[in-house]
Write a structure and sequence with these properties.
single chain; mainly alpha; 3-stranded antiparallel sheet; 10 strands
């Protein structure tokens, strides 16, 4: 749908002017079937109902609105009140009707994000590098090699880098592996599509955003129509919504954790299977050391275990939430409070019993039997974790804190990196609309987390 928006709308030349009614031979008050805005529809059980006449709506769109998909603004409602009203009330919304017709009144998240996903999957760039691509990132001919390349930014590896797109087309086994259409051409086409779609937005974008590739028009109530740059929050909201709306599930049947960062290891796994040379993979990954690439590929073996841990943690969090809702326990305020009668307040979530942590915590050198657990960065994977809506603002802030830490290199630390990547994946699901909490509660939490400046939630991250 996003790519087809570059193609001009094709007129159907069907229907008739819904504003003009011909009453020849008919009594006043009779429904004029096929005229006006309504048509008669007969269901399988032979019941009849009046629905909006699509052909006549099309006629109005093509002949009165000149095939321009106008947004439902106050000004447009004055000029096209009935058309916009019919679209909103009978087509599931104005944008849904436009989408069926292959047009869009806004270049929203829903238009640009599928292309962002495709670009991340094709290039294997990390999330930050993908989101900070600039409009001149694709260069057709390198001054030294005359081959196409991609300019991108990777702070952890020294800033600006170049990715030779011809590397995607070089497999380590000569001509025995056929890759089909050249990846460099596909990447170039994807970037060109984004450039053409977003070009009308550049002139109205903020000065600091004009040079970036990934722009969109906001449909939020407080920022409707504003030109914004796609950021991590945009990605999280859209991906969680997409997974929920389409009921996407993993191979284990659990709700799919749909995250842009997962395309990077997928890309390298595919390159390994296709027989690419390890140095080609190193160049595509943008690693400064071959040992980093080898370690990265080795970690790919455990990705199945990673997602099993996430799924198990989410089921546990959901069950504990349901139990607390059935039997509301107060937060402990006395030193001698007993588990089972109270819940215990932690840094960013609650705990059913801090005196009975998981076995791996009990085996830690700093843990002392009988004392309360203080390993707060392990809470989300603990069977005692309890999350209520009052925890949401801090959890939202904690997710931002972790995302910053991952961007700045904490995932390069073998043990801690895994802990925080799992925490980020779990938080993405907890804070996804209508998974555990409603979109209204999540929006409230987001506003609170932005308005209140929390002190550092996780000391290690700090």
């Amino acid at each position: 749908f996003s790519k087809n928006l570059l193609n001009p709308y094709r007129r159907t030349n069907e229907g008739q002017d819904p504003r003009k009614l011909k009453r020849i031979g008919g009594e006043r008050g009779d429904k004029l079937i096929g005229q006006g805005w309504l048509c008669l529809k007969r269901s399988p059980d032979r019941n009849e109902e009046f629905v909006v006449c699509d052909d006549n709506m099309r006629w109005y769109f093509e002949n009165v609105m000149n095939c321009v998909p106008l947004a439902g603004t106050i000004e447009n409602k004055r000029s096209h009140k009935t058309f916009l009203s019919m679209a909103t009330n009978h087509f599931g919304g104005l944008n849904e009707m436009y989408k069926m017709w292959g047009v869009s009144s806004y270049l929203s998240q829903d238009v640009i994000m599928p292309l962002v996903v495709e670009l991340a999957a094709l290039t294997g760039l990390n999330v930050e590098s993908t989101l900070t691509l600039r409009r001149d990132c694709f260069v057709k001919a390198h001054p030294l090699t005359d081959l196409p390349y991609l300019q991108y930014h990777k702070p952890r590896s020294g800033g600006e880098k170049e990715l030779a797109l011809s590397l995607y087309d070089q497999a380590g086994k000569g001509d025995s592996i056929k890759l089909g259409q050249k990846q460099s051409q596909i990447i170039a086409k994807c970037i060109d599509t984004i450039l053409k779609l977003t070009e009308p937005l550049v002139s109205n974008a903020a000065v600091d955003d004009k040079d970036f590739l990934l722009l969109y028009q906001s449909t939020g109530q407080t920022s409707f129509g504003k030109i914004k740059q796609v950021n991590q929050n945009t990605v999280n909201i859209w991906m969680n919504k997409t997974a929920a709306v389409n009921n996407l599930r993993g191979s284990d049947g659990e709700p799919l954790i749909f995250n842009l960062s997962r395309f990077r290891p997928t890309k390298f796994t595919k390159m390994v299977k296709e027989g690419h040379d390890i140095f080609h993979i190193m160049a595509v990954a943008g690693h400064a050391s071959i040992s980093t690439t080898l370690g990265y590929i080795d970690r790919l073996k455990t990705t199945g275990d990673f997602h099993n841990v996430i799924a198990k943690a989410l089921v546990n969090i959901k069950n504990n939430k349901i139990q607390q809702e059935r039997r509301q326990l107060p937060i402990a305020s006395q030193p001698n409070a007993k588990p089972g009668d109270f819940i215990f307040k932690g840094s960013f979530c609650n705990c059913k019993n801090p005196y009975d942590p998981p076995e791996k915590i009990k085996k830690a050198a700093n843990y002392h039997e009988g004392e309360a657990c203080t390993y707060w960065n392990q809470c989300l994977q603990c069977e005692n974790v309890l999350i209520t809506e009052n925890n949401l603002p801090k959890l939202t802030a904690y997710r931002s804190e972790i995302n910053r830490a991952l961007t700045n290199g904490v995932d390069d630390m073998p043990r801690q990196g895994e802990i925080y990547k799992k925490a980020a994946a779990i938080l993405d699901q907890i804070l996804a609309p209508d998974v555990l909490f409603s979109i209204e509660k999540l929006n409230w939490a987001s506003q609170i987390s932005e308005a209140d400046e929390y002190e550092t939630i996780d000391a290690f991250v700090y």
